[in-house]
Amino acid sequence: MTERLTLAEADIVRAAEIWRAGGLVAFPTETVYGLGADAGNDKAVAAIFAAKDRPSFNPLITHVASLDQAKALAVWSDRAEALAAAYWPGPLTLVLPLRDGAPVSGLVTAGLDTIGIRMPAHPVARRLLTAFGRGVAAPSANRSGRISPTRAEHVLDTLDGRIDAVVAGGASQVGLESTILGLTGKPTLLRPGGITAEALVGTLGTHVFTRRDTEAISAPGQTPSHYAPRATLRLNAAEWQDGEATLGFGDMPCDLNLSQSEDLSEAAANLFAHLHALDRSGREVIAVAPVPHRGLGIAINDRLSRAAAPR
Ligand code: TXA
Ligand code: MG
């Protein structure tokens, strides 16, 4: 039985209690809903992989409420400091060297000597993390290979009965997973997301490398079919064909529109919810209009091409 928790203080306390007891609680963040467990509890973290049917070699992001918590987990640096000052709380995950004796399960880091950390901005996530007082490991709250959830209903679609509780906190504002930046060597973009590479370059004053195209898959978010609806996706559709579910961009007739006013932030926020809705329509093909490949459009196109990849 999955408890439905609200934003009432008693429910926030209840969620932290479940984490302390080693349970799983899905909760809203500004990017997508996360499936959280005590990052220091091996059994609890293992339960995340079981609930998601997720291959266990994937490392997880640890969510924190404060900089002190982040510094207890990772070897901090000037670059980490500058990025945290500019973007935390917010949709940026930093991959940093793991601190010796950090209170974190080896399952969270997948045995690596690095750790991905993020301080989410969503007020409900902040209340929960503050109430718990320790790091919370949380991948997106969906069964492996399915679309990331931006609402509590999406979480329940694939995880009802498999997790202890979900905190319902409305729609996620960003709608795309966090940007992941590797800081263990040269700054390297590991996953595009809500914060653009251009913005990171501006803050760091140095080049940011990408390794998606040049190196073997290193982050499981990088497996081609990771964000997958049941229907087949037809991308960059210049016109609609009979029988398709249609996802538009800009001023055009369609079933659902990412953003009629061509606002890429709005399109990102709508992306997963619209894919969920069109997938539920039961049609075989979802046709998607072209989305401009700039700014947030790069992250949107990244998610769309993964959702369209053969599996
Ligand atoms: O927006 C988000 O980041 C959401 C919300 C819930 O915070 N979380 C999320 O987690 O997307 P998940 O598990 O679906 O994706 C985590 C990604 C994976 O691709 C994982 O490989 C990468 O982060 N990651 C985590 N720790 C890492 C590490 N030490 N080195 C390299 N990649 C890491
Ligand atoms: Mg995910």
Automatic annotation (TrEMBL):
Its main location: cytoplasm. Its EC number is 2.7.7.87. PROSITE patterns: YRDC. Coiled coil: none annotated. Gene3D superfamilies: DHBP synthase (3.90.870.10), Threonylcarbamoyl-AMP synthase, C-terminal domain (3.40.50.11030). L-threonine binds at T31, A138, S178. Belongs to the SUA5 family. This is Threonylcarbamoyl-AMP synthase.
